[in-house]
Amino acid sequence: MKEAKQMSVSAIQDGTVIDHVPASNLFKVIQILGLDRIENQITFGTNLESEKLGRKAIIKISGLFFEDEDINRIALVAPDAKLNIIKDYEVVEKKVVEVPDTIVGIARCMNPKCITNFETVTTRFRVVSKKNVALKCHYCEKITTQENLEIF
Amino acid sequence: MKSKDLVSIDDFSTEEILRILDLTEEFEKQPVSKLLDGKVIATLFFEPSTRTRLSFESAINRLGGKIIGFTDASSSSVVKGETLKDTILTVNNYCDLIVMRHPIEGSARFASEIATVPVINAGDGANQHPSQTLLDLYSIRKTQGRLDGLNIFMVGDLKYGRTVHSLMMAMSRWNATFNFISPEELKMPDEFKLYLDNLGLKYYEHIDFTDIISKADIIYMTRVQKERFSDPIEYEKVKNVYVLRNSMLKNTKPGMRILHPLPRVNEIHQDVDVNPKAYYFEQALNGVYTRQAIVCSLLGIK
Lengths: 152, 302
Prior knowledge:
Order of helices and strands of chain A: EHEEHEEEEEEEE
Largest sheet of chain B: 5 strands, parallel
Shape of chain A: elongated
Number of domains of chain B: 2
Radius of gyration of chain A: 18 Å
Oligomer: heterodimer
Helix content of chain A: under 10%
CATH class of the largest domain in chain B: Alpha Beta
Number of strands of chain A: 11
Radius of gyration of chain B: 19 Å
Largest interface: A-B, 17 and 17 residues
Structural class of chain B: alpha/beta
Strand content of chain A: 35-45%
CATH superfamily of the largest domain in chain B: Aspartate/ornithine carbamoyltransferase
Helix content of chain B: 25-40%
Number of strands of chain B: 9
Strand order of the largest sheet of chain A: 2-3-1-4-5
Strand order of the largest sheet of chain B: 7-6-5-8-9
Largest sheet of chain A: 5 strands, antiparallel
Number of helices of chain A: 2
Order of helices and strands of chain B: HEHEHEHEHEHEHEEHEH
Structural class of chain A: mainly beta
Distance between the termini of chain B: 17 Å
């Protein structure tokens, strides 16, 4: 009898595991963290079953550790994400993401008359509400709410 | 490195605002001088605004400054497809200060980040027009002798009115009480009422103001524009409710003054003009002194 073929995603020796990413936002997380432009070994799984999120994604990045301010950039698209920091196959630290006070260059201002939608300007927002995310545009001063949030 | 721009009234601390008002008082006493001798100021009006432009240009001319610029985008290189960034980077080389009016919101903040000379926002779409707010504050302080604890009536289009929003935010620094009088469709937006709630300031909303007008220290009139109404019948119903007439002013406080950012259409009847409580044309004159104060302050001359 043949053994069932199983594809294994091996544990990583050193690096970061990002868990509880909503499956629908996996590629946005990859984009925000610039994972599509680095040389490190990366494995990811998506549409995995999750009680909390319905379908979740998980990303394992070998040999890469994030600063808090970098990882918090994904809070807009993966607010429940959990990080496991792996050293020598052991989880040495767990982290959750937190919505930062300012958002630079990730989100689009929903005001169609805002300068950031006309010229090449890096968007910049002050986070005025973290629970139901609300962002105040540094330029036009209008509020972009969670429902209208669009990530570049 | 430039000291400061004037993009939004919130950029100025209360002390800075009061400093501008004190300077304005000086310019009112001495509006003509050579303080701006040798200075070149660019007035870039990407959309026409005759009143604001003339006020700035009068202010600068009376202080001996020179003006370069354009009065609408069709006479600038925008029609050739130049970006705002390139226009600002270029003009920045030609002048000591930029006064800019632009229909796109946030354009003034963007320009101020690119320019090495100070930038004054003379209106960016529906967003900010801080020199108007400062001249309103000056007019209020001058006529009332103080800014603190006044009862401010705002009448007309409170939904889209950029000037009333900025003035309300500014006056909230001085413990004002507000009465908002507008048709249902043009009420003060919730975000501003929430702002006042958080500060614990009192405000009242009315759809008519004949009964309460005697309480006002300042009546700030704005235009109710037909094009703001989704239903033209609604406009027809309310268009005469928000017209101030001389007969309505009988029981008002002796020191009460009527302000209006101008241009007026019919919301203040012409019979009010002769009433000493009508202050809108003096208010426009105050605008010249206020802009002299702003320009000289940003250039570090005063």
